[in-house]
């Protein structure tokens, strides 16, 4: 199952040129760009690991692309995303975020039903990848 | 295992329809028009008029400009040779204009389309080398990433390498720099600056660095005439002028100052003029006679003669 998260996720995978144009757009607005990765793709997982600190004072996208490629090399089988944070006063939030890498195999999610009091049903989604310990979720040892 | 599309060129997009066709073999290109189109002449002319002396540096800058221009025209014929390596090393005594030329160089490379942005990120050892294990690499990478698309200007680069301490983190910084200089030639120009003799030692202990720097520019010391001309230029920029007698005094001052220790070429000239301005202001403030525009602009011999250069 192909996971769709962040901007552009229904489009074909972005090429490096397209990523560069998006980064140029973000940097042109003065947003601080950062690279993050994870092997827990639950949509409510906010705590992705940071690949280095957010890159402040950057003017050119080549630096970010270098970090993306370094991260891809270190974690070829994880989800990697780029976040662009707008620090200006009223906004102060992530303005743009999109995936730049995904594992080759994505097992997807199953739906769990939990019976609660009074014949209530609680639904939750569960990533098949999470059945394996962290670090081996997308690359079996 | 296959990567799913990211970083791969899209199918059917290999050829950009908007890309211009290469020119036919028998066509010709007007290089003069190409020069003026890029605004190169403006920069070269301003280099010529704003900077006194430095003949070898100006020649080399012209050569680099010509190379990039010809490279661009070659590209239009489909004769691309890959981006040339433009990492540079500026050696010279203090105050010979290394930083100024680096700024002009960035602007020039930007106009010629070699650099995408043409900004200058000026760093020293403190900005590149960390204080504990694992601190150096992120620091250096951060500085280099900030300079992407422009010029990374490393002042007094020889401090990066400390021969007496083999566990110094400077070596790590140098290795990362080398890696970037090799792999990001199209994104980054590294300019190192420093005194000639120490730079020589630095390159002797880092042969990899020396071989990756294609252009070694020597900044010669200024002659007395050149220093006087630099002084005139600085004064004109600040809307001052020397009276006829003060011109002779100023030359005399420079001739004496040049023989003294810690003489820093143009920087010493600037400091001398700053002090002359102080004395000039003091003289006017103490005078009782009304002063006109000319008095406010004119520096007199007395403003220089009070200096301790004449004192002993």
How is the topology of this model organized?
The complex is a heterodimer of chains A (141) and B (312).
Chain A: H1 16-28, E1 32-38, E2 49-50, H2 61-74, E3 79-86, E4 93-101, E5 109-116, E6 120-127
Antiparallel strand pairs in A: 1-2, 1-3, 3-4, 5-6
Helix pairs in contact in A: 1-2
Chain B: H1 31-38, H2 40-50, H3 55-76, E1 88-92, H4 98-111, E2 120-123, H5 125-128, H6 136-147, E3 151-155, H7 170-183, E4 189-194, H8 196-205, H9 207-212, E5 215-219, H10 224-237, E6 241-242, H11 244-259, H12 265-286, H13 293-297, E7 298-299, H14 301-305, H15 308-311
Parallel strand pairs in B: 1-4, 1-5, 2-3, 3-4, 6-7
Helix pairs in contact in B: 2-3, 2-4, 6-7, 10-11, 10-12
Q: CATH-wise, what's the superfamily of the domain at 16-105 in chain A? A: Ribulose bisphosphate carboxylase, small subunit
Q: Which residues of chain B sit in consecutive blocks of at least 5 with pLDDT less than 50? A: none
**Largest sheet of chain B at a glance?**
5 strands, parallel
What's the CATH topology label of the domain at 16-105 in chain A? Ribulose 1,5 Bisphosphate Carboxylase/Oxygenase
In CATH terms, the superfamily of the largest domain in chain B is P-loop containing nucleotide triphosphate hydrolases
Please tell me the overall pLDDT of chain B. Answer: 87
Question: Structural class, from helix and strand content of chain A?
Answer: alpha+beta
Shape of chain B: globular
CATH architectural designation of the domain at 16-105 in chain A: 2-Layer Sandwich
How many helical stretches of chain B?
15
Oligomer: heterodimer
Walk me through what this model shows.
The complex is a heterodimer of chains A (141) and B (312). Chain A is 19% helix and 30% strand. Chain A contains 2 helices and 6 strands; from the N terminus they run αββαββββ. Chain A has helices at 16-28, 61-74, and strands spanning 32-38, 49-50, 79-86, 93-101, 109-116, 120-127. Chain A has a 4-stranded antiparallel beta sheet with strand order 2-1-3-4. In chain A, a hairpin with a 3-residue loop joins strand 5 (109-116) and strand 6. The two termini of chain A are 22 Å apart. The mean pLDDT of chain A is 92. Chain B is of the alpha/beta class. Chain B has 2 domains: 31-219, Rossmann fold; 224-311, Helicase, Ruva Protein, domain 3 (Orthogonal Bundle). In chain B, the strands form 2 sheets. A 5-stranded parallel beta sheet of chain B has the order 2-3-4-1-5, with helices on both faces. A two-stranded parallel sheet of chain B has the order 6-7. In chain B, helix 6 (136-147) runs parallel beside helix 7 and helix 10 (224-237) crosses helix 11 (244-259). The chains are: A alpha+beta (141), B alpha/beta (312). The interface between A and B is medium-sized, with 27 and 26 residues.
